[in-house]
Design a protein that fits this description.
about 375 residues; Aspartate Aminotransferase, domain 1; 2 domains; seven-stranded mixed beta sheet; three-stranded antiparallel beta sheet; globular
């Protein structure tokens, strides 16, 4: 039996989303929603109904939702659009996702990096102090993708609005795990991803506050009200709408279970010798636990867990596509080379938590014996 604890990377497709997609594909001609024929109108109706579902779940107006290929594209849209609108610097907390940091580098924007504390939390005062007269955009993620620490987004957004400075919130990791209210928050821009919450992969959105005008990053035609060119991924959008509709009814219960499950992981695994629980104990997303494992390379831990039927990830980038330490953990001042990230989601069960609590001590003990 397999136990999937890597929801922070991607969450399995919810059955409601899969059913909505397959039903739509089986009964509808996948026409261009921009055409005036009957098939085009049918696709337009399906897109706009799904857009309403996504917007409602995110506390936004439907016209504020611009569909993209994912949060990475949404972030690039926000960075390029703000930089093109006002040639200025950007404020980037050290714990931001690489999509934010690298988009700023790609588009040649100057960055003021704001440090964090040892739990991965950035002080609102420090972000506000970094704002200069030429600041074009302030970035702040809702919750961290490696250690789960949440940030003072409401306080920072309010301060930016007072100073008439645009602010972008990366909520990709938070959506489905925290109560996200775009209009209530007052942010100018928010990037989100479908697959982190059980929607289809290859789909996301950039929420753009009503009245804000940004030039389109992708140009060619007038889809998404001329804000993002390219034929809309109608089947995926329909599936995302269904996932949001389901979550509107189940999110409260899911979040409560996730918080209890990860608190149990933090307590039980945090008792082990050589294990340190990273992140903030109280200001955190409910579904992520990150552990520092003294003296053992993360690849060995991940492989040992996989052999026992457990899918997990390392908070360190060295267990992914490159050999560099995690910038997030480095910014926190902790061991950036050796960590284990466990994350739960809509399909997780108590049996998954039991399996991890039983397996981690065995794997670590075995690897430490080998190293002696």
């Amino acid at each position: 039996m397999r136990h999937y604890l890597d929801h922070a990377s991607t969450s399995p497709l919810r059955p409601a989303a899969r059913l909505a997609m397959t039903d739509w594909l089986a009964t509808t001609s996948a026409a261009d929603a921009g055409r005036i024929h009957t098939e085009g109108h049918a696709t337009r109706v399906a897109l706009e109904e799904a857009r309403e579902e996504v917007a409602s779940f995110l506390g936004a107006r439907s016209r504020e939702v611009v569909f993209t290929s994912g949060a990475t594209e949404s972030i690039a849209m926000a960075v390029w659009g703000a930089a093109e609108r006002a040639d200025g610097a950007m404020v980037v907390p050290a714990i931001e996702h690489s999509a934010v940091r690298l988009s700023c580098e790609q588009f040649g924007t100057r960055c003021t990096v704001v440090p964090c504390d040892r739990t991965g939390r950035v002080a609102a005062d420090a972000i506000v102090a970094a704002i200069a007269p030429d600041t074009a955009l302030v970035h702040l993620q809702w919750g961290n993708h490696e250690v789960g620490t949440t940030q003072p987004v409401a306080e920072v957004v309010a301060a930016c609005r007072e100073r008439n400075v645009l602010v972008h919130v990366d909520a990709a990791q938070a959506v489905g795990h925290a109560a996200v209210d775009f209009d209530g928050l007052g942010a100018d821009l928010m990037s989100v991803s479908a697959h982190k919450m059980g929607g289809p992969p290859g789909l996301g959105a950039l929420l753009i506050r009503r009245g804000l005008r940004l030039r389109s990053l992708l140009r060619g035609s007038d889809q998404e009200r001329a804000r993002r060119a390219g034929l809309e991924n109608a089947p995926a959008i329909v599936g995302w709408g269904a996932a949001c509709r389901e979550l509107a009814a189940t999110a409260t219960g899911e979040v409560a279970w996730q918080h209890g499950a990860t608190e149990r992981l933090r307590i039980e695994l945090g008792r082990l010798d050589g294990i340190t629980v990273f992140g903030n104990a109280t200001e955190r997303l409910p579904h992520i636990v990150c552990l520092g494992i003294e003296g053992i390379e993360p690849q060995a831990v991940l492989l040992g867990l996989d052999q026992r039927g457990i899918a997990a990830h390392s908070g360190s980038a060295c267990a992914s596509e490159d050999l560099l330490p995690s910038p997030v953990l480095e910014a926190m001042g902790v061991d950036a080379q050796r960590s284990l990230r466990l994350s739960v989601g809509w399909s997780s069960t108590d049996a998954d938590i039991d399996a991890v609590i039983a397996a981690v001590p065995d794997v670590i003990s075995y690897l430490r014996r080998l190293s002696q």
